[in-house]
Amino acid sequence: MKKKKFTSPIKKKLLLILQAGLAMSLTPSPRTHGYILKELGKEWQKVNRDYLKRIIQEFRYEKLIDWQEKSDGAIRLTLTKLGKQYALEYKIDEMEIKNPTVWDGKWRMVIFDIPERKRKARNALRNKLKELGFRELQKSVFVHPYPCQNEIEFIVEFFNIRPYVRYGEIMNLTNEEDLKLHFNLT
After folding, report:
1. PANTHER family, from UniProt (predicted)?
2. Of 27, 55, 74, 90, which sits 20 to 30 A from 104 (CA to CA)?
3. Does domain 107-182 have CATH number 3.30.70.240?
4. What CATH architecture applies to the domain 9-94?
């Protein structure tokens, strides 16, 4: 079965939330439970409840989750094997950009202007872009030769900085020879 790429960062976030619940069920340590709940609480508050219900229905249809209604009316959601694969695909610490065998000649550019009050998110974005292999052209302009829009969308949503970040694909970039050398595209 071919993997589907989610275009909605909310869907990706929901899968990670469901995975956190799975992690709690597998971890006997109360200290770890506390950490997971702390992180989960932050993400859970950002999700629109009506939209959440629609996404859960989509996940059921796509066989990413199992849905079990208990006799007391409570609903239990669990990730299926396929759902776990999708959730793992979007772990931010394990994220990487795939390098195709042939470069399409386009540059992927991330430009941001994140306010000082969100300095931690700005620094985290900058560090993540470097970790993913982006080349820094200026303090808030990074470039990469390979397709990575889904990854950037997820990172932007993860750090909650959507209004401050732009992604684009460009065909012509002046003085690109040093970039081609850097990415071994010559």
Report:
1. PHENYLACETIC ACID REGULATOR-RELATED TRANSCRIPTIONAL REPRESSOR, TRANSCRIPTIONAL REPRESSOR PAAX
2. 90
3. yes
4. Orthogonal Bundle (1.10)
